Amino acid sequence: MDDWRSRPVLFLAFLAPGALWLALFFLAPLAMVWLLAFGEKAGPVAIDITWTLANYQAALDPLYLKLFWKSFWIAALATAACLVVAFPAALLVSFASPRSKPLLLLLLVLPFWTNLLIRTYSLIAVLRGNGYLNDGLGLLWQVLRFLLTPVGLAGLAGDRFQPLELLYNDAAVVLGVTYVYLPFMVLPLYATLERLDRSLLEASLDLGASQWRTFWSVTVPLAWPGIVSGVILVFIPALGTFLISDLLGGPDALLVGNVIERQFKAANNLPLGAALSFLLLYATFAVLAARAWHGARAARLG
Amino acid sequence: MAERAPLDYGKRWSLRLWLAATLVFLYAPIVILMAFSFNDSKRNIVWRGFTTDYYVKAWHNAALIEAFGNTLVIAVLATVLSTVIGTLLAIGLWRFRFPGKAAFDAAVALPIVIPEISFGVALLVFFNRIGMPTGLPWPLNLAPIVASHVAFCFPFVTVVVRARLAGFDRSFEEASRDLGASEWQTLRHVLLPWLKPGIVAGALLAMTLSLDDFVITFFTSGPDTVTFPVKIYSMVRFGATPEVNAASTALILVTILLTVLAMRLQNPARRPS
């Protein structure tokens, strides 16, 4: 590696474009929002930076804290669901034959190449009252009723099929987040499971441990770095989601992301939105710091 | 039942079933969406027969087509710019040491990790504050969106290119210089050929991110700079129609086509045999 002073012109040619872009279109906008959070509305559009803490105080109101709590739970549930769905799938792909492996992996991550909005929208048709899932359930209901009628138990199935309320509630949001971010969980899990030293699994099985015990005591600890990466990759975007809750959630299914969006787009309370946005950022940093701390501890313990 | 090795997870039926169910979960909604874009029914629920009417309708929806064009132009410009900026930065970070490098590294990774909504609202505030002139002629009016897309794409390019640089054998560079090649010749004939797969992969990633982006664009687009996802969003809010399905199908196909094309470019040596 050269010292930058040895070729200052070359150094600038390589780094300046990126540094400038980052400063202008990332750091400066963030700094503006950071300042706005300490501002007061001085007119319809004008905002004075008065270093007031009132916006953070308002953002820490129980009303918004509850919202953060709810966003946290929805993100946590969806992350757990992603992990449960993705782990067996990633395990199978990492053990698949070399010929089918790339194809299976591609199939699992290909939806990532489809627009977030379109994928969210595609769920609406599946989940809504007269959507495909309810149609399928209705069909099942008819079969069940048909089977129960001869034995005189048709009454058990009820007179009419009641479509389930699958859309516009919190469960739909959890499902939507799981659906959208599943590829983010598959990739890091696959990457660690692929590199995993299989002789350790064999040793465990040879020494008489059951498959179940081998899975929990050997496979999972070895795959831990991948699990942590996957959890972070899903949890952070899930925490700040606003599109999924906007389209799939009910009228009361507001998450932090939706409230931030409203402050900036509709409610025009920029200082409050700025404070909420930075609280979300700080929460993200806390997650990342916990991960770094965890990584450092794991490295120390060897 | 045939004997199988205890570690042969690839042959376990329970796992295979799980993977199959996962794939159904991932693909069923998209496949249904695409299939029903050909459905001859307004209500979009029951299959009434095959039609391409909604594609014709979408094609004649001038606002939709304009939005589609905007999305493609933005993606191309953002890809080119972020590939150049990201690659230069990766080489610079690989080659030079300078004070504050650790902090700079962290700052470059930041756009990758922060929640999109925080980034989006920051750009909204920024472009309002600097008083971006409105009513500029096309495609100049897309500049704020392109600049924003580059800001979140180029760090990804840097990450991918740096991963490729990590495997570069420095002695090639030294040999090239010892043999009298200039800085430029070394870069052009030694380093860049080695980096090419990384650069192509980075460009592909940048293009996908740009085409897929909704959140950042939603906050940086104005009334006359609507992109395809933003347009579809406003259509979806009025209700799901087959026309939205048709337009979405078109975008899915374009993205897949571009992805396949880029993958081909990446491995030209692998001929289909």
TrEMBL record, chain A:
- GO CC field: plasma membrane
Keyword check for Ligase, yes or no.
no
Report the protein name in the record: ABC transporter permease
UniProt-listed PROSITE patterns: ABC_TM1
Q: Please name the source species.
A: Marinimicrococcus flavescens
InterPro entries in the record: MetI-like, MetI-like_sf
UniProt cross-references to PANTHER family, sorted A to Z: INNER MEMBRANE ABC TRANSPORTER PERMEASE PROTEIN YDCU-RELATED, INNER MEMBRANE ABC TRANSPORTER PERMEASE PROTEIN YDCU-RELATED-RELATED
Which positions, given as ranges, span the membrane? 72-96, 103-127, 171-191, 222-249, 270-293
- Gene3D superfamilies per the record? MetI-like (1.10.3720.10)
Q: Which residues form the ABC transmembrane type-1 domain?
A: 68-291
- Going by the entry's taxonomy, the superkingdom of the source organism is recorded as Bacteria
Q: Where in the cell is it found?
A: Cell membrane
- Swiss-Prot/TrEMBL keywords: Cell membrane, Membrane, Transmembrane, Transmembrane helix, Transport
Q: Please provide the Gene Ontology terms (biological process) for this protein.
A: transmembrane transport
Q: Which family does it belong to?
A: Belongs to the binding-protein-dependent transport system permease family. CysTW subfamily.
Q: Where is the major localization of this protein? A: membrane
UniProtKB/TrEMBL annotation, chain B:
Recorded family membership: Belongs to the binding-protein-dependent transport system permease family. CysTW subfamily.
Q: Does the keyword Membrane apply?
A: yes
Q: How does it sit in the membrane?
A: Multi-pass membrane protein
A Gene Ontology biological process term: transmembrane transport
Q: What is the lineage of its organism?
A: Bacteria, Pseudomonadati, Pseudomonadota, Alphaproteobacteria, Geminicoccales
Write out the entry's keywords from A to Z.
Cell membrane, Membrane, Transmembrane, Transmembrane helix, Transport
Taking every annotated instance into account, which residue ranges of this chain make up the domain ABC transmembrane type-1?
A: 68-262
Protein's recorded name: ABC transporter permease
Q: Where are the membrane-spanning stretches?
A: 17-38, 72-94, 106-130, 142-161, 198-219, 244-263
